[in-house]
Phosphoribosylglycinamide formyltransferase (Oceanicola granulosus), 198 residues
Amino acid sequence: MSAAVAVLISGTGSNMLALLDAMAADGFARPVLVLSNRPDAAGLAKAAARGVATAVVDHRDFRGDRAGFDAAIDAELTRAGAEIVCLAGFMRILGADFVTARAGRMLNIHPSLLPKYPGLDTHARALAAGDVVHGCTVHEVTPELDAGPMVGQARCAVLPGDTPDLLAARVHGLEHQLYPAALRRFVAGEREPVLLEG
Ligand code: GRF
């Protein structure tokens, strides 16, 4: 039986769709749940339209109770039988206990060439630094933000005239290639990183 994958989102869910499409195309894994912390996340309807189960754990119901938020997500993942969790634009930080319990079974995609630019505003920071190469990283999730072992990276040139929005759009396209390739290799147990050039 192929690996059961849950995808956690907060918004558009274009990376989530790339993962669902890749899993549907060659069956290396199967999506068992798409979960959002925001009830209005556009990705929820897109997942449902593909016949994938969806759930919402609204972080606003857990103000000041991070452990409760994590426990509610954990309950949904357990109910769905998720073995691997992919964070795909999930904009909440998960607690160390939650992350540690899923060590080696949770991935994230980040729009920079980690270890450069963990956190937010990665495209603007790459431009401000004068970088000539930028890109995105899929990594295992560890309690330290955007710092776990690298599973894959995709690079592209920074072009003259690039703005944060232009660069973000180019990197976003790369993300949709990288995440499925990285997940495929991860579930196969191959530990050589996926390296793509855009
Ligand atoms: C992506 O840029 C991803 O790298 C970051 O959040 C964004 C999510 O975009 N973590 P989408 O919702 O997958 O379109």
User: Anything to note?
Assistant: Helices lie at 14-26, 42-49, 66-80, 96-101, 122-128, 164-187. DSSP finds six helices and eight strands in the chain.
